[in-house]
């Protein structure tokens, strides 16, 4: 095992390959406070990429209901349990540093009868068959399923709760699928960090399926090779005729009705750190405002998908899922400052990839207190630019209000 630096863990860790990074990295941010579980993203992906024979149970994008749902079933519970059994009582955070074992480090300790590069497991066929099992299932304060509490929906934490978790391949900095493949059939593109499978080399050993802790590499029995989310890379390359050569967001991102998604490319330094890019919306959300957090960073893959945690869910549950930054992220989101409120308006305002934003100050329209803290709403204008500095969209913080004329009131 080599030693590589994982900034999400705030330390070096073991990984089977030498450290190497792309010039830019595909990154997305999902605002879970907005997700309505409509599955539009899921069906947009399905109808584009996985509608053929052998792909019936293949959902590159899915939206699952937490805490009970998952696709495949119990994917996160199983790998978390395996890690805990390998390192009992040691899977902890010390401030911002993870002191436990990643799936790569746990594999070094958990040799067993068959040596592993990555700690993992193969889901059963039954676990792949039900992508929406436990959809909309709430949890009572005592853990009773389908039970409600009379005060269950009072903030800051609900006693009866669930939330939707939208997922696709995280196109990790240190992919477990890549690490486990005995054929070297999986690679990261140097131009955008997208993780792809060379199907001419793949022999269907399913080591990648076993290794990926998020279970986003999937075996296709009709062809006996692995397939996975490709981040709609033709759209990233500007090959969709709609944008006439401009980089474009993926199908799942562009179809999002709840406006929870923002996607783009961030610049990566040779040491793996994000190059400072203060007015890139993704850099701002992850590195400056720190309202977007990685999903299960303790796995060690350094995922490039980030989530704004739902503010009504018990903090302990969120901390085991998104790491130690949950309190700060939720506090910042509940009482957003002027810049954060403006950047949040960019979600789903265009299907072009945004590389820079600018805020033009507007008038003050509202003042109040939230959680005892002062909050002021300004009707600022936020402008988004592409990589060539061309304006692609502008919008305001206070959205326009349209009144239907009386002449149309009773025409249905």
Give me a quick take on this structure.
With 412 residues, the chain is α+β, with helices and mostly antiparallel strands.
Q: Which band does the percent of strand residues land in?
A: 15-25%
Helix content: 10-25%
Shape annotation = globular
Task: Give the low-confidence spans.
Answer: none
The order of strands across the largest sheet is 12-3-14-13
- Total helices: the number is 11
Domain module count: 2
Radius of gyration: 22 Å
CA(first)-CA(last) distance: 68 Å
Oligomer: single chain
- CATH C-level of the largest domain: Alpha Beta
- Which fold does the CATH topology of the largest domain refer to? Alpha-Beta Plaits
User: What's the architecture of the largest domain, going by CATH?
Assistant: 2-Layer Sandwich
The chain-level mean pLDDT equals 94
Helix and strand sequence? EEEHEHEEHEHEEHEEHHEHEEHHHEEEEE
SSE topology:
Blueprint: E1 2-6, E2 11-15, E3 24-31, H1 40-49, E4 62-66, H2 75-86, E5 93-94, E6 97-98, H3 103-109, E7 163-167, H4 176-180, E8 186-188, E9 195-197, H5 207-211, E10 217-220, E11 225-228, H6 233-236, H7 251-254, E12 261-267, H8 281-288, E13 293-294, E14 305-308, H9 315-322, H10 326-334, H11 338-344, E15 356-360, E16 364-370, E17 373-378, E18 381-385, E19 391-396
Parallel strand pairs: 3-14
Antiparallel strand pairs: 1-2, 3-12, 4-7, 5-6, 8-9, 10-11, 13-14, 15-18, 16-17, 18-19
